[in-house]
Amino acid sequence: MKKHFLFLGVIALASVLYSSCDKDTPDPTTPTTPTNPTNPTLPSVTPPVVSNVYGTLVSIKMDYNYSNPALPMPMTIIAEIGVAAFPTALNSSSLANAGTVSVNDYNLEKQTNNSYSVMGTAGMTPASLSLDNGSDWKVGGSAGVSGFTYSHSVAFPNYTGTLPTTVTKASGLTISLGSEVSNADSVYITVMSGDKYVLKAVGGQADDATITAAELQDLALNSDNTAMIQVVPFRITLESINGKDYAFIKEKAVVGNITIN
Description:
mainly beta, about 45% strand, globular
């Protein structure tokens, strides 16, 4: 099976952009460029969108380890995100209106391109999406999309390792995975600085992931700790509903600021 991936907007999560990669060894080609935050707003994340399905519904848990010279110590921002997209035809980038879509009874907002999203984090409404209790999806349906409900109860993937705070371009970067990743089909590792990024994708059973010095060479040097790194394990469940195939994805995004020298 082929798989696509996307970068979601920082808060609105409005755009769904597609490009091809292989399921076991994803090969990212032309994703949109993430925007590095200069204050504690939430960064972009990279959930995949599976091809040959009539809809992709994604539950995301994000831990953003944020630091700033104005803060006495680093802080962790925890967010939960729901995203859904329903192509008008198999593998089409045009999306259909699916009526009201919710996860755990939290309604997703329909964007202008018919993608759907909702975010919960402390200080916002909602403060969470209750994803620890599972992901109960409800799709109201429309003329182009049959309504359905689905309880996505598989365990969330997780990453329990420690993110680096400094990356030295000349030395490359190796992230230990192995026992620090659980319940994952695949893992994305992304390093971003300025308007450039490097994305490495490996299988969920990989012992580690290496980004070489050559792959890091185009990243801007960064001494103010505003560059970013993400480790993103995810897993995909395929289900046939109303005679059509849908993909349900659970993803953990562990994100932190880094210095690049």
